[in-house]
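REQUEST ID: PR-0412
SUBMITTED BY: lab tech R.K.
PRIORITY: routine
TASK: structure prediction, single protein chain
INPUT:
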Amino acid sequence: MGTAFHPVAPSPHLPVAPSPHLPLPTPLRVSPASIEETCEVMKLATREGWNVVPSGAGMWLEVGNPLGRVDLIVSTARLNRILDHEPLDLVASTEAGVTLDAFNQRLDEGGQWLPLDPPDDGRATIGGVVATGVSGAQRCGYGQPRSFVIGMRVVLADGRTVKAGGRVVKNVAGYDLCKLFTGSFGTLGIICEMTFKLRPLPAKQVTLIAAGGPAYLLEAARNVYQAGLLPAGLELVSGRLANELGGASSLEAQLLIRFAGIENTVDYQVEKAATIIKSSGATRIEINESDRALWRRLQEISLGRSGATTIRMNVKPSQLKDALNLIEATNNDSRRWHAGVGDGRLRVIDTVENNPAECIRHLTTLRQAVEALGGSLVIENMPAEIGNKIDSWGHNRAADLMRRVKQQLDPSRLFSTGRFGNETVNSASA
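STATUS: complete
OUTPUT:
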């Protein structure tokens, strides 16, 4: 078997304990080059009782609650082939280790793309994007990763392969299973191959940027959205984050409105949106016709920094003002956040507290307030010293679902055990 094995340096986020059969003093990183090799790796792991963590670029290994034990990290780095692209069908298939950037570069040759923009500094793999299911700033215009996955091949804990969906957009057999694995954070199986439905590349993309107070800009954004202009991105960003994006000399908040499509339609939308914004109290309006670097920088900043705390909130779009008020009530000039006006997504980046106890108190209070609005708060990254003292997910329906499904697909709890917290669930309730 051509699988590559490498030792992994110890990490506080990847605890190790001796396995019940073959003790491993340190985690091994395994790099299978095919689905068949991945199956053999999992058969061995099942026999030896090893705990396994699937990995793409390794950018999201610390997300969720601390893992109970890690013996084996299964990397998709060598599953790096784009399998096929059918431009006439708007469909493409790829292995999990291909980066999102490389995938879109290939699709660009056929005038198409996969319109996803998760937090990413260029390393994100397709498998990682699907496994996390995390959306970016253009979610309101294009949707979430689960909206694009129409087929998938996954290796389960016992080494069996399950295939869901198909290669044709109209074939939706097994599509619910695709949605189930999307956002599972490596707790149900190893995603090896995926098939996506695609979108044509827009002929023109332009971003209108308005600066001013967050309350005024939020109202302006709602007016744009209600005018039926259908922006690809409608993002409100804090003054500090706007400053780091490179377009602000002050710490004023900014509203980024991206339009994409045929040239005449985009020109009309930009003109109409500018008229709406001018009556909203914005202090400055500009138009960026070469906006790719701007949105890419937003993806990079969204990753946050190691050792800090990054949280993601989801509320109804109508409740976004209340959620922003919660952030502003405890805000400081160093905090960075951005909010999706059209979908109610709010990400707060680098929430740093010197006192771990104070950080836990703040996050607990904030989560209670968000849940009282009918939303949810997920702690994506946190310092190791508070990781064992607060749940990452809270009352999150997706996390609850993953705990129940895990009992069916991974009853021995080999995959990323502990990431969603208590996984001991009565199978009758699943």
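NOTES: Residues 4-75 form one domain.
REVIEWED BY: pending
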